[in-house]
Specification:
elongated
């Protein structure tokens, strides 16, 4: 009898927890690179501003609000403007490459009450994956573009409506109308 207990205990120690079978591929460098300035970035002298003051002088006394005539800050230098423009451009290109379900969403019932919050990663091509959280806990979420599945909770058919989605939310055999909207 004690040999059987030892054998069962050894079997429990040998079990390993398996990770969630994600279909998302391992990280690869994006096709659209983030802004990476070239080697000669900021090495050229600014054209037209060379004689101006680049940085604000240290304050020697308190300054009254009335002392500001127009601007509170110096205008950005050519280097700062070019860098900001590059970062903004890279962000716009990344947003354009994302799919329609990418980002934060909220699943609400027909009365507009929040059921679940979701974050989805939609690469624009292929499976959509993400996660959900709500009163029942949290877990993985997947979509094939026609159906959104919250693993362990239920599924919703997806029909595009303006800036959101609507469909039928099915939980435990019961189907009710629901919407997928962007949170405020």
């Amino acid at each position: 009898m004690s040999g059987l207990i030892v054998l069962a205990f050894a079997g429990l120690l040998m079990q390993e927890a398996a990770p969630h079978p994600s279909t998302q591929a391992a990280y690869r460098a994006p096709v659209i690179r983030p802004f990476e300035p070239g080697r000669d970035f900021a090495r050229e002298p600014a054209q037209g501003d060379a004689d101006s003051e680049l940085y604000r002088r240290p304050l020697e006394a308190p300054v009254a609000v009335e002392a500001y005539v127009r601007s509170y800050e110096f205008t950005p230098s050519d280097v700062e403007a070019a860098y900001e423009q590059g970062v903004t451009s890279a962000e716009i290109r990344a947003d354009q490459a994302a799919g329609r379900l990418d980002g934060a969403w909220r699943l609400v019932d027909a009365a507009g009450r929040r059921l679940y919050d979701l974050v989805l990663s939609d690469p624009g091509v292929g499976a959509v994956e993400g996660g959900w959280r709500g009163p029942a806990g949290w877990g993985p979420a997947t979509s094939d573009g026609a159906t959104l599945t919250l693993e362990g909770v239920g599924a919703m058919t997806l029909e595009r409506t303006g800036s959101g989605w609507r469909g039928q939310w099915t939980v435990g055999g019961e189907t009710v109308p629901a919407s997928l909207i962007r949170p405020n």
